């Protein structure tokens, strides 16, 4: 699997943004090392309130999957990370570096490795939210923050907020603004392109594949892809409410066929974990299903396969790339 993305072609705009991040943040530190070292602290508002955080901290632990791509693009080293839930080839500078201590996985974390890393800053939260109090207690000399998207808040605004906070901490506010602008452009492009498909009446079903099974991701509240509906103005092919907002809900292929969606958008939960036992690719499950053979989305080739790395990242860069992918697919079909 390529380092950055396996299924999507990253746009020239996003590549330019990444280049700006490397040139802007890194060059500032290189050109003015004394100023960078003496940059002091910044007060940010995280998910718990105001926190005083060192600017350009030297020893960073990151546990929130939403931030890895940004930290990587901005050339921020880590002293510890949860390598077991980062895939194997997405961020090799972290997962392949033995000096970066392994915090394990959220369901069996090795919090002692955070202590051993002697961090100045711990970016916790998301899958590690339940460990917050313990991390704070064990690392009294570190700033511990949680900036992952909060439940009940606008998901798009939350992605932008997280990037803005990272920009403040790592003195990369211009680069953060570029990422947010690219995201806004992509969401607008997807909405405009969808409006041009059958006057915006094409129906859409969002699905998740895992363990050889197909699950249903509900509009609005469903894991990761639910937000596509209000953002791009998509018309749901299936109106069933979400019961499991994290891992999708059970649905039969017959029910999907009966809904006959014009478009299917699929997230492959195991696509970035190449060693998953019994792994069956999403494309095989969807297009190899006899029950789905006559569904409009399949017969017209209107099945969008989300980047396999998406389930591990779910960051602003992944959503930007997905909205760009959708914009192109909708525009080509219009």
Architecture blueprint of SSEs:
Blueprint: H1 12-31, H2 33-37, E1 41-46, E2 49-54, E3 60-62, H3 68-73, E4 80-81, H4 92-95, E5 101-102, E6 104-105, E7 108-109, H5 112-117, E8 121-124, H6 132-138, E9 143-146, H7 155-169, H8 173-195, E10 203-210, E11 213-217, H9 228-232, E12 235-236, E13 249-250, H10 253-259, E14 263-268, H11 282-287, H12 296-299, E15 303-305, H13 310-313, H14 316-333
Parallel strand pairs: 3-8, 4-5, 8-9, 10-12, 10-14, 14-15
Antiparallel strand pairs: 1-2, 6-7, 10-11, 11-13
* Biggest beta-sheet profile: 6 strands, mixed
Q: Helicity level, as a percent range?
A: 25-40%
Taken as a percent bin, the fraction of beta residues is 15-25%
Per DSSP E runs of 2 or more residues, the count of β-strands stands at: 15
Mean pLDDT: 87
Total number of helical segments? 14
The secondary-structure class comes to alpha/beta
SSE order? HHEEEHEHEEEHEHEHHEEHEEHEHHEHH
Give the overall shape, derived from the CA principal axes: globular
Poorly predicted spans: 1-24, 26-38
Radius of gyration: 20 Å
- Report the end-to-end length measured between terminal Cα atoms: 32 Å
